[in-house]
Amino acid sequence: MLVAAAVCPCPPLLVPEVAAGAAPELDDLRAACAKALGVLTAARPDLLIVVGPADPAGRGPHPEGATGTFRGFGVDLGVRLGRERGPVVAERPLPPSLAVGAWLLARTPWDEAPVEGLGVGESLETARCTDTGRDLSARADRVALLVMGDGSACRTVKAPGYLDVRAEAFDAAAAHALGTADVDAVNALDESLAYELKAAGRAPWQVLAGAAEGADLDGRLLYEDAPYGVGYLVATWS
Fold first, then answer.
1. Backbone angles phi, psi at 159, to 5 degrees
2. Which of the four, 183, 205, 229, 235, has the lowest number of CB atoms within 10 Å?
3. Which residues of 207-216 are buried (b: 16+ CB within 10 A; e: fewer)?
4. Which fold would CATH assign to domain 2-237?
């Protein structure tokens, strides 16, 4: 059963070494993420699963001990998913979203329960997302999710997806749904529109919605902004 969740964005710029001179610009976002992870720690789960968008090579489950790197972003920095319980057995690296999640957990530091990862496709249909979430919630008596994903990438002309006038309303709807733990509202986010707006968080958010069915969790929005023209949201469900 799902007992808690933290929703965080997943730009590699969250990692100060990647952001370099621009690192202070996201200090408030990092602080909000740290606060969200505190909610997961307080929930004392039996299992924590980090869910995030991934390309085909990174989709599917990633075991505890899986490693990732930010070398592709110009920094020779590695991360490991979960505690160091033994030798690394993963055969493939973590996708960037899960690597950022692993980096956040390492800053907590997380030592509460085993940690696994799941990479999902950004275009995964809503029904399959919710089915996946239901399966995750049944993995243990007390399951927590760290859900990684960005909002639209079209908030300004300098955004990765350029300016789209629909982006602000989409992000506002997502922020309200996540900030109130409204499962139906999260599932109502339009998958086609999300794809057009390059909102990589839509599928992971809907996995969360599936996991939270019947859990009667309360939501809280900790951060909402669009630095660099990308919508970043931090929320907790507990």
1. -70, 160
2. 229
3. bbbbbbeebe
4. Protocatechuate 4,5-dioxygenase; Chain B (3.40.830)
Checking 191-196 for CB contacts under 8 A at 24+ apart, the result is: 191/123, 191/125, 191/126, 193/166, 194/122, 194/152, 194/170, 195/122, 195/123, 196/164, 196/166
Report pLDDT digits (tens) over 109-127. 777 799 999 999 999 999 9
* pTM assigned to the model: 0.96
Query: CB under 8 Å to 89, separation ≥6 — which residues?
Result: 63, 65
Domain residue extents for the chain = 2-237
Q: Are 45 and 77 in contact (CB under 8 A)?
A: no
State the greatest distance between any 2 C-alpha atoms of the chain, in Å, as a whole number: 49
Cβ(90)–Cβ(62) under 8 Å?
yes
Record the tokens describing residue 40, joined without a space.
Answer: 């997961």
Tokens read off for 220: 């809280």
Q: What are phi and psi of 236, to 5 degrees?
A: -130, 145
Cα–Cα distance measured from residue 178 to residue 170, given in angstroms and rounded to the nearest whole number: 12
Please give the structure tokens belonging to residue 42.
């307080």
Residue 199 sits at φ, ψ, to 5 deg, of -85, 90
Q: If you average pLDDT over residues 184-202, what whole number do you get?
A: 97
Q: What is the 3-state secondary structure (H, E, C) of 15-31?
A: CHHHHHHHHHHHHHHHH
Considering the chain, what percentage of its residues have pLDDT values greater than 70?
97
**What pLDDT was estimated at residue 110?**
77
